[in-house]
Amino acid sequence: MFNPPSTLSEAVDQVDVWLESPSIIMLAEADDHWPHLKQTLLASRTIGAKVHDARIAAICLQHGVRELWTADRDFSRFPQLKTVNPLVR
What we know:
Oligomer: single chain
Low-confidence stretches: none
Largest sheet: 2 strands, parallel
Number of strands: 2
Number of helices: 3
Mean pLDDT: 91
Order of helices and strands: HHHEE
Helix content: 40-55%
Number of domains: 1
Distance between the termini: 16 Å
């Protein structure tokens, strides 16, 4: 984050290193994802380009994520998902 890779190859290599960690859990849409996304969309009245944010929020909520670190203020439309901006104290 503070010393970003200068090439795509370096970035891909870094992700490979992170994925080797035994504590990493990859989140993805589960088989019952649609009801969670639908509820998130309706509750937040999200449309258009922000649907992708709703998808991320729904995946986090579905998997029990307690806190999403993001500098994107658009996630404030999902109050059930606690967000923290790691760039602000």
